[in-house]
């Protein structure tokens, strides 16, 4: 079948009603590696906002448990688009995210900004490095998906359009990007973890490539060295060559879940969504502050199991 398989299927769906299915198709079949990379960079750039990066540093999770923190975040965010928002798995994933957020004092503005990166950064990544562009239907579905996620996280004043998310993200970064020593520690720990996903002889090049993919405001906020024009050019050339190759390959017929990828390493025997994340606040950042009302209990949620594949 032509390489248009998933594009055609997504464009036959209603982005205002079928947004979960469209996002599932994009993530599990069409742009698995691209969206994994893009969402990792989306979260990474939020550390350059000092109120976010400093809080994450104070929790001590990146210094002490970076791999587990990466795995838990990815798996909890995966559950709603794999299983649906109203499935037991989707509800458990979002409940755990909200329960963790309530342990810290997080502003609605910061939450809204982080949400905007989930919409804008993946589209910009695919615009630059994807083997095709997203269709209008797929962009609209992505907006609707993250509006729903944000609503279930209690985030207020969520933009209604892609342009609204884009302006929110860009304006917030212009106002707030700045150096913070704690945020730099979180960024360093994250880059070190990303380096470990590749064989040791490649790690120095991977680190330089990661910095080459950062825009100048982001790199300056962390005070990272510019890897230089040759590294930037080589990085761009490599990603564009990959895109050209992918255009020649057939559409994927088998989904790829996070647990199928070598990046998720904390749960080789499978995992229980209800047990992911943390259940007590860590470090100096501990304080009440989740935007979603909860019953006055510290009990763990009811168990919701997931198979090793993450399906």
User: Percent of residues in beta strands?
Assistant: under 5%
- Going across the biggest sheet, name each strand in turn: 1-2
Structural shape: globular
Our count of domains comes out at 1
Order of helices and strands: HHHHHHHHHHHHHEE
Structural class: mainly alpha
- Rg computed from alpha carbons, rounded to a whole number of angstroms: 19 Å
Largest sheet: 2 strands, antiparallel
User: What is the mean predicted local confidence, pLDDT?
Assistant: 90
By DSSP, the count of extended strands is 2
Helical content stands at: 55-70%
Q: How many angstroms separate the termini?
A: 25 Å
Low-confidence stretches: 284-311
Tally of alpha and pi helices? 13
Q: What does this entry look like structurally?
A:
- With 311 residues, this protein is mainly α.
- It has one domain.
- Helix content is 60%, strand content 1%.
- Helix 4 packs across helix 10 and helix 10 crosses helix 11.
- The longest helix is centred in the first third of the chain and has 23 residues.
- The protein is globular.
- The C terminus is likely disordered.
């Amino acid at each position: 079948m032509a390489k248009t398989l998933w594009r055609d299927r997504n464009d036959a769906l209603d982005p205002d009603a079928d947004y979960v299915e469209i996002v599932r198709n994009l993530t599990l079949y069409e742009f698995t590696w691209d969206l994994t990379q893009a969402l990792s960079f989306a979260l990474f750039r939020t550390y350059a906002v000092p109120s976010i990066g400093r809080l994450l540093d104070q929790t001590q999770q990146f210094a002490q448990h970076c791999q587990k923190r990466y795995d838990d975040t990815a798996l909890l965010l995966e559950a709603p688009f794999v299983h649906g928002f109203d499935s037991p798995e989707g509800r458990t994933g979002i409940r755990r995210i909200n329960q963790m957020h309530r342990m810290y004092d997080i502003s609605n503005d910061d939450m809204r900004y982080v949400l905007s990166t989930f919409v804008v950064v993946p589209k910009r990544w695919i615009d630059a490095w994807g083997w095709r562009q997203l269709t209008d239907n797929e962009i609209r579905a992505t907006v609707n998906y993250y509006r729903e996620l944000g609503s279930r996280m209690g985030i207020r004043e969520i933009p209604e359009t892609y342009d609204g998310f884009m302006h929110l993200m860009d304006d917030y970064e212009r106002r707030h990007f700045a150096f913070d020593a704690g945020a730099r520690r979180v960024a360093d720990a994250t880059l070190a973890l990303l380096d470990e996903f590749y064989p040791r002889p490649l790690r120095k090049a991977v680190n330089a490539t990661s910095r080459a993919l950062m825009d100048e405001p982001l790199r300056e906020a962390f005070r990272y060295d510019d890897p230089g024009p040759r590294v930037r050019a080589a990085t761009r050339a490599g990603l564009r060559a990959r895109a050209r190759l992918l255009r020649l390959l057939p559409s994927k017929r088998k989904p790829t879940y996070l647990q199928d990828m070598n990046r998720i390493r904390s749960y080789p025997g499978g995992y229980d969504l209800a047990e992911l994340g943390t259940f007590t606040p860590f470090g100096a950042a501990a304080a009440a502050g989740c935007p979603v009302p909860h019953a006055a209990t510290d009990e763990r949620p009811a168990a919701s199991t997931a198979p090793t594949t993450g399906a």
